[in-house]
Amino acid sequence: MKLYGVHLSPYFERAYLALVVKGATDKVEMPGMPAPFGSEELAAASPMGKIPYLLLDDGTCLPEGQMIVEYFDRVFSGPDLEPADPLANVQTRLIARIVDQYIAPHSASLSRPMFGRFAPDETAIELAINTGLPSAFDFLEHTLAGGRFVTGEQLSFGDIALIPHMYFF
């Protein structure tokens, strides 16, 4: 199987971190970007036209970082990223969702201009700093269970979703 993307993508990094935790980085090829962002080649390679995506040996293409992490959690041995406790399980999924729905859009406004691909959008940056991110972090803080990791004492989907975004802050 092949995992396509680049380490500067927090969604690719999420999938990569799952491989690290599972001790499976040697089981998945990581050839990088198949084509430039926005290109017809990338749109043809990935159902959503973005990275990361996982190409399985049978030709199945699995997009979206969180879905790839969940797939890796099921197919590779190593620590479980999905807590067995029902409440912790829901909390870790909620944290991953908060990251995707509330933190990521605003962190992208701040981080994309750093890499020269997008011009700074002053309105989006102001919204991110003054409204979006403070609200997102309030949601996150309300959901954290306390302990070493986001749902207590076990590394989970929520941690793996959050860590790459925290890198940019």
What is the secondary structure topology, with strand pairs?
Layout (H helix, E strand, L loop, with lengths): L1 E3 L5 H13 L6 E4 L7 H6 L7 E3 L5 E3 L1 H11 L10 H26 L10 H22 L13 H12 L1
Parallel strand pairs: 1-2
Antiparallel strand pairs: 1-3, 3-4
Helix pairs in contact: 1-3, 1-6, 4-5, 4-6
What this model shows, in words?
With 169 residues, the chain is α+β, with helices and mostly antiparallel strands. It has 2 domains: 2-75, Glutaredoxin, CATH 3.40.30; 86-168. The protein is built from 6 helices and 4 strands; from the N terminus they run E-H-E-H-E-E-H-H-H-H. It has a 4-stranded mixed sheet with strand order 2-1-3-4, with helices on one face. Helix 1 (10-22) packs across helix 6. The model has no long low-confidence stretch (mean pLDDT 89).
The total of beta strands comes to 4
pLDDT < 50 stretches: none
Shape: flat
- Succession of helices and strands: EHEHEEHHHH
Q: How many distinct domains? A: 2
| Helical percentage | 40-55%
| Strand residues, percent | 5-15%
Strand order of the largest sheet: 2-1-3-4
